[in-house]
Phosphoglucosamine mutase
Amino acid sequence: MITSSPIEHLNLPNSPLFGTDGIRGRVGDVLTANLALQVGYWAGIVLRQAADDVGPIVIGQDSRNSSDMLASALAAGLTSAGIEVWNLGLCPTPGVAHLTATSDAIGGVMISASHNPPEDNGIKFFGSDGTKLAKDLQAAIEAGIRGQSGSHVEPERWGQLYFTPELITQYVEAMKDSLLPDTSLAGMKIVLDLAAGAAVDVAPKIFTQLGAELICLHEEADGDRINVNCGSTHLGSLQAAVALHQADLGFAFDGDADRVLAVDNRGRKVDGDYILYFWGQHLSQLGLLPNDAIVTTVMANLGFERAWQALGGTVVRTAVGDQYVQAEMASSGAMLGGEQSGHILSPQHSVSGDGILTALHVTAIVQQSGKSLAELVDSSFQTYPQILHNVRVDDREARLNWAKCQPLQDAIAEAEAEMGNTGRVLVRASGTEPLIRVMVEAESMQKTEYWTKYLVAIVEQHF
């Protein structure tokens, strides 16, 4: 029986399993087939109990070598809890969210570590509405895994597993339907960096169907190469390809295609701040942006915030993480939000962040404007110099408790006092990688570089 597996064999950390984006880590450490089996079983038990009617659970995965193993173990756990499983195979994370929300599924699961390197992986849950699973349900699943759950009723029958890649067509059609009627991308030459990940099938298909001329990079699913010197965290090859092919613009997705960054026709990076600015203007002109409000995180550039305010709009900042952006949007009724990293949320079009959908809308906005993306960038805003430096800290407990380091707190206070209202500092532990992130933003690059080096040295000294 699933529940008889010794808890100690799972090598569970003292800190919670569920982070800001599900369960994530290096495969073979905490993240094992045994853990995935237990996660699947207890997710099945918890979601059955929470549902009025017991429907299926949708599973998708990216191209990592460990994704098949984890998806199989998770499906075994779910079916042992009496749950029917629809396995989509290789697909973008937003595809899982969409199909969960538009079917009678009681939940969805994506096997992916997003932009992380190939040796990492993760298990990300969605509720029946396609949004991230509620924290109380995550806690209940973890309690079961840790042997702390109350009594529960064992299922009377096993669930069935079905391989359903054909359902992805519904997701593709929904993305096309999100565009204005008769939208065509004919005449646009576009470079797509598919990061050897979850976007390799869907993104070229939909851009081609809409008439675009495509040049694709890293277009084959490859578990050894996913996110390696490619995708949204490594724009060099995309920038070179846009210049070589004299393309109108380019897009780079991350491993699970829930985020995207763009490159303009001059080879310049166009991040989530610019995407929010352009898409915000477009929605505002259509009367589809309530109070002209955009929700973003503390990472958003001051240049973007002040430019949007100059247009009469409002910028609302949250903690880093799309779950915080989504929660604020849900409570305030905002219709556009996202992160500088390219994770963009447009609830009138999608229940989750969607890199491919975002790229489609940015392309359509550029084409309809009659201008190049570079011209749109030039007429928008100037960013403040901003440096983000990542310091690797493998000690999970020390990393998560970084705020208790008094020398670091003193150094942050010193930097903030010196810069006043001309700059800012943000130090945080990554919720998805073994990193402490140090971000400094100031009016001058000299100040930005000085305080970044100073703070990074303090982190390296004490961690």
